[in-house]
Amino acid sequence: MTSPSMQATACAQPNIALVKYWGKRDAALNLPAAGSLSITLAALHTRTHLRFDPALAQDEVVLNGRRESEHTRKIGGFLDLFRARARIETRARIESGNDFPTGAGLASSASGFAALAVAADGALALGLAKHELSMLARRGSGSAARSIFGGFVEMAAGDRDDGTDAFATPLLDAAAWPLEVVIAITTREQKATSSRDGMQASQRTSPYYRDWIATVPGDLATARDAVLARDFEKLAHVSEASCMAMHAVMLATRPALIYWNGATLACIQCIRSLQAEGTGVFFTIDAGPQVKAVCLPQAAARVADALRGIDGVEDVLASGLGEGARLETVSA
Ligand code: DP6
After folding, report:
1. Ligand 1 neighbour 98 (Cβ under 6 A)
2. What is the pLDDT of residues 143-163, one digit of tens each?
3. Rounded distance, CA 296 to CA 260, Å?
4. What is the H or E stretch that residue 8 is in?
5. Distance between CA atoms of 126 and 309, rounded to whole angstroms?
6. Which of 152, 251, 271, 285 is deepest in the core (most CB within 10 A)?
7. CA torsion 64→66→67→73, rounded to 10°?
């Protein structure tokens, strides 16, 4: 049984996939159709405070200082997974804040569910292993499974029906290959189609979906080798190819999913000219118009300056690679 009030605060950072996840083998358990590979960022944070309180009649969610009703059901359903393990029904108040734009392709759901999983584990003293936390975070958002770990991370698709083999594992520490990421923000508006809805639409209607899923294992093997060998060129080629193949699937979805804007394309062209000059940089783009430029440390300042100068780029953020989700405080 839980004590009257059990609370915890956890912090997690978003991650950026280099080999992308776009498609599910099971929607109910949120099982990915293929694996993925990501880097966890250092400079962007989600901090989540969670308090189980017997006085609450229902779960309450405050996101970035605003009382939420839109996401309360989903978050409540996610917490049910932890309540079931702790054998309690106590409702909770969740307060979560991001220090970066929410819902604009910067993976706020990844850091959000990773932080919430760690906070729930801490508040309920469940003592879950990291792979279990990753598996549970996946139920909130597939990409959240990866933010449990820092540095370079690989997510397994698994093949069991119950999803017990679909979790992330760390591949290489951030300090072992300290790449930098420069993010060009091309809009602060929320995207029109969520990743969840978008990938389901692609799965239903994109003629390229099957071929896309078939390319992932090969790309994953190449990217894994590149990371372990710290081979930047090799990682650059496979990451850009995975990103563009995913966007090709999106574009061929009916109706088309166009996550880019004009500045997104201008950023790609800028990065291509920097590459032609020998600058160590490559791009990746998720379900939103922001461009993430992954750089060798010595190239980051040059890349940031170049992207800042592009019409339509509203802001440029820079980040190193960071650690996985962690508990900050826990109290009764
Ligand atoms: C384009 O993890 O947000 O960022 O599992 O449905 O919550 P759900 O999807 P989500 O999708 C991320 C898609 C992506 C690529 C990636 O991060 O691998």
Report:
1. no
2. 999 999 999 999 999 999 999
3. 25
4. strand 6-12
5. 49
6. 152
7. -40
Both tokens assigned to 319: 């980040």
Residue nearest to atom 8 of ligand 1 (CA): 141
Which residue puts its alpha carbon closest to atom 14 of ligand 1? Answer: 286
Closest residue by Cα to atom 5, ligand 1, is 142
Fold (CATH) for 7-173: Ribosomal Protein S5; domain 2 (3.30.230)
Q: What is the pLDDT of residues 37-66, one digit of tens each?
A: 999 999 999 999 999 999 999 999 999 999
Sorted by where each begins, the domain ranges of the chain are: 7-173, 180-320
Contact 36, 227 (CB under 8 A): no
Is the overall model pTM greater than 0.90, yes or no? Answer: yes
First to last CA, the chain: 13
The residue length of the chain stands at: 332
> What is the CATH T-level fold of the domain 180-320, as seen in this structure?
Alpha-Beta Plaits (3.30.70)
**95: enclosing H helix or E strand:** strand 92-98
pLDDT above 50 for 331:
yes
CA-nearest residue for atom 3, ligand 1, is 195
Answer whether 195 contacts ligand 1 (Cβ < 6 A).
yes
Cis amide prior to 255 (ω within 30 degrees): yes
Q: Please indicate whether residue 143, judged by its CB atom, sits closer than 6 Å to ligand 1.
A: yes
The ligand 1 atom at the shortest distance from the C-alpha of residue 144 is: 2
Task: Kindly tell me the burial class for residue 69, based on how many C-beta atoms sit within 10 Å of its own C-beta (0-12, 13-18, 19 or more).
Answer: exposed
